[in-house]
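Hi R.,

Here's the chain you asked about this morning:
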Amino acid sequence: MLIKKFQSYLENTLGIGIKIYSEDKKNRYPLFMEEVYDLYRCSIEGYDFIVMIDKEAQARTPATIRKHAAIVFNKTELETIYVCEAIKSFDRKRLIEQRVSFVIPENQMYLPILKIDLREHFRNLRSAKNNKLSPSTQVILLRSFYEKDMNCYTTRILSEKHNYSMMTLKRTFDELEGFGLAEVLQEGRERVLRFLYKGRELWDKSVQILRTPVKKRVFVSKTSITKDWVKAGLYALAHHTMLAEPEEEIFAMNAEYFSELKKSGKIAQRQRMNSDCVQIEIWQYQPELLSKNGIADPLSVYLSLYNTDDERVEIALDSILENFSW
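And here is the predicted structure, written out as tokens:
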């Protein structure tokens, strides 16, 4: 039965108990309502709702669902949750815009009445322990270590700092919440991200899902170098630690910027390293977002060199964590 799937989905996803009751016959709904829905009363964390289980496999139009929910509310003064086996993506968007609560068991839930908005594939976020954070999510997590006075971040603040789209920030917030590193709250029309841990504890809980920022390393002519390039790799590690500075500078830039320079002819790529070349690390995110004074940030540098076999480098990397101002 769909009501059992609904109950199981919410309990497994939210980790809370949900009680289901038969709806009171005294409410006397219009006959057509009983023909198209199975109606139940449910209790979630002390809040009572009416669950409208659609008897059809495919959902009705958002306007119809909203009208039927209003009928239920007028009878019971309780908010409703619409449940169906499938809802088209366009109709889901309409329901969300109209703030109509709905659940598609094992797929998606939208419950603004509980300040919950868990979108498609939330199960994958919860089980993503074996994966890595996406690059944009990693940048926001790393930023929290450098901005210790920030207790939380809004989508507006992060959009201004990173020029990320609202869609990217939505996925980022969901990802951090899915990994159990943060919680997402709703304040007015804005979503707010609050990390559940701070400093070294947050680092220790997240380090296994952090990725190296480096996609690949390439070589370009020294004549291509400009002052705005960010220094990275062993050169940046030497800057942050007592490691001896390498003979040649190493730079970092994201793939989009590198492609732009290459297409415009502002850099000349070489096939191998020689005395006329410098190394560039192609990063999965913009190093400028976290760099300071033209030097890549220490935690990104740590992640970029984490798999080294050089004992000197390992010691220097350890000192980054030991000396970092958590």
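One quick note: The CA atoms of residues 66 and 100 lie 7 Å apart.

Cheers,
M.
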